[in-house]
């Protein structure tokens, strides 16, 4: 039975995409670059913020990348107000702990992720976490997962990485565990084959 869940944060536990897209769009506008929110969302959803930055810097040679990053970071903090958990997230975490398992968080976000989890009363359902503050290589590098597995004595046969992008699945596989894809808008095409693909988190609960 898989009952050790390693959760991605953005787009998996919490629906932070609206704030991320708005912040990125405004950061581009500060340099007189106008891009539709739908386009930004697709790039972030399928790839990452880093790849969005790279794409628009390639398309706009005059773009000040350092300024874009700085403005995006500052704006994104202000945009992430009253961020909601995805439906079913808390229920799945409770199911994991009720069945003798553990939830772990693996995020590229900093302490703000922990603060949001505390606000929504789900932090107590997590046994351990890795954030950007710990300076691990980014996914799909498995170093942060390996750290959590070794620190907490997790049996890889009972473990799965849950995320909304292919890099989450790849990170899980690179660490020797299963990968579960939360593809809520059916936008993700993967080379890495997830052991589970769900449209609703609640469907992760094993009957």
TrEMBL record:
InterPro entries: HAD-like_hydrolase_sf, HAD-like_sf, HAD-SF_hydro_IA, HAD_2, HAD_sf, PGP-like_dom2. Its EC number is 3.1.3.18. Gene3D superfamilies: HAD superfamily/HAD-like, Putative phosphatase, domain 2. GO terms for molecular function: phosphoglycolate phosphatase activity. One of its GO terms (cellular component) is cytosol. It comes from the Bacteria. The lineage of its organism: Bacteria, Bacillati, Bacillota, Bacilli, Lactobacillales. SUPFAM superfamilies: HAD-like. Keywords: Hydrolase. One of its GO terms (biological process) is DNA repair. This is Phosphoglycolate phosphatase. It holds the Pfam family HAD_2.
